[in-house]
Amino acid sequence: MERVNHSVVSEFILLGLSKSQNLQILFFLGFSVVYAGIVLGNLLILVTVTFDSRLHTPMYFLLINLSCMDMILASSATPKMIVDFLRKRKTISWWGCYSQMFFMHLLGGSEMMLLVAMAIDRYVAICKPLHYTSIMNPRVLGGLLLSSYTVGFVHSSSQMAFMLNLPFCGPNVVDSFFCDLPLVIKLACKDTYMLQLLVIADSGLLSLVCFLLLLVSYTVIIHSVRHRAASGSAKAFSTLSAHITVVTLSFAPCVFIYVWPFSRYSVDKILSVFYTIFTPLLNPIIYTLRNQEVKAAIKKIRTQHINSESRVLTITP
């Protein structure tokens, strides 16, 4: 596959988070721990849901897909950022930059739609509990998941299609720790004002539609829960609080990044770090600590593991 433009730029230079050598060493250690937490935390959810038959429900099927998306989203930028903390010259090839942007928009768009699917699941479970199993059947779940990835792919492809025709003849310095689409577009050797508007409209429309769907879904759910018995509403609110917290963490950074995508404020870097690194870390923590079923399943698996080790030690002479 050949590039269709005639750029002379073959790589981009990433400025990273800081120029201070001491801070970069500190960031290297800190973000290495955070990335390990992302992988281990999301793997814990995957293993727990897979091995506990009580969690083989539509909600947890969607949850393990969210965990997979979080791991891949974080892995698209975080490992390179960690390695770059030890390098004086932080570069990324043109195709590496293009691939990084493609997968980040693919997973970001897919995750937004998956959160909508999870809201639909909660709506059916809380508002139509007697028909939950028949409505949220495997065919519907597969359709929701396929729709999430399809929307993410269309969104990412539409964004990246513009990039293939942009000429890059210098400068090639990106003031971030990864290839952020708005920042890369600014480096093109042509007027990109209309393209900037298209990028904002594309990302903004997807975010707005998903946000409105989520807002309507959770408003109806909360209204329904408030008219229930105290015991039932307490459990429902516990589940909803975890979902709403994750939605807030996912959408809040996007609002700031894409409402003012071409500003030079350092807050953009902070929000980018939060969205690409800390949100994938916080999601498994929130769903683990705020969900009694997951906590009970983890405790059960840990107990079974300890008992199996005890039996092995007892049998071994």
Helix content: over 70%
Structural class: mainly alpha
Q: What does the radius of gyration come to?
A: 22 Å
Q: State the separation between the terminal residues, measured CA to CA.
A: 62 Å
Round the mean pLDDT to the nearest integer and report it: 82
Number of strands: 3
- Note the run of SSEs as H and E: EHHHEHHHEHHHHH
- Describe the sheet with the most strands: 3 strands, mixed
Molecular shape: globular
Arrangement of strands in the largest sheet: 2-1-3
How many H/I helices? 11
Amount of beta strand? under 5%
Unreliable segments (pLDDT under 50, ≥5 consecutive)? none
Write up this protein.
The chain has 317 residues and is an all-alpha fold. 74% of the residues lie in helices and 3% in strands. It is built from 11 helices and 3 strands. It has helices spanning 21-51, 58-75, 78-84, 94-127, 132-135, 138-164, 181-185, 193-225, 230-259, 267-289, 292-315, and strands at residues 11-14, 91-93, 173-174. The protein has a 3-stranded mixed β-sheet with strand order 2-1-3. The chain is globular, with a radius of gyration of 22 Å. The N and C termini lie far apart (62 Å). Its main location: membrane. It is a multi-pass membrane protein. InterPro entries: GPCR_Rhodpsn, GPCR_Rhodpsn_7TM, Olfact_rcpt, Olfactory_Receptors. GO terms for molecular function: G protein-coupled receptor activity; olfactory receptor activity. Residues 41-287 form the G-protein coupled receptors family 1 profile domain.
